[in-house]
Specification:
Oligomer: single chain
Number of strands: 4
Strand content: 5-15%
Distance between the termini: 7 Å
Number of helices: 2
Length: about 110
């Protein structure tokens, strides 16, 4: 997280400093608690089967047709396995955790 980045009060998505509204739910950066309550849960753009990447701070909204997160490249089915296989240093000891990964590949858990 860089200086000035902010966490959306409505959906807890991490946003870059330059954004005035949340990338995930469009809640304004300086929304009041009352305004926040109308965002985050009001996701009419999300269709059946769509999924949110749960890898660390990614949180990207992915269409149901995607099997790999468009933002971080982690496969939908392997998100939990990667987190479980990671150590405190962020290195995955099992290079077979994700298809196509090479020995020494890792995910930054920052």
């Amino acid at each position: 997280m860089s200086s000035g980045d902010w966490m959306c009060g409505a959906c807890q998505h991490l946003n870059f400093k330059k954004r005035d509204t949340c990338q995930r739910c469009q809640c304004p950066k300086f929304a009041t608690p009352t305004e926040m309550s109308t965002y985050g849960i009001n996701r009419t753009e999300v269709l059946a089967g769509d999924w949110y990447c749960s890898t660390f701070n990614c949180g990207a909204h992915n269409y149901a047709s995607r099997t790999i997160c468009y933002r971080c490249g982690v496969p939908k089915d392997y998100t939990t396995a990667v987190i479980a296989a990671s150590t405190e240093g962020g290195y995955a000891h099992d290079s077979n955790v994700l298809p196509g990964w090479k020995s020494g590949d890792w995910i930054c858990n920052r």
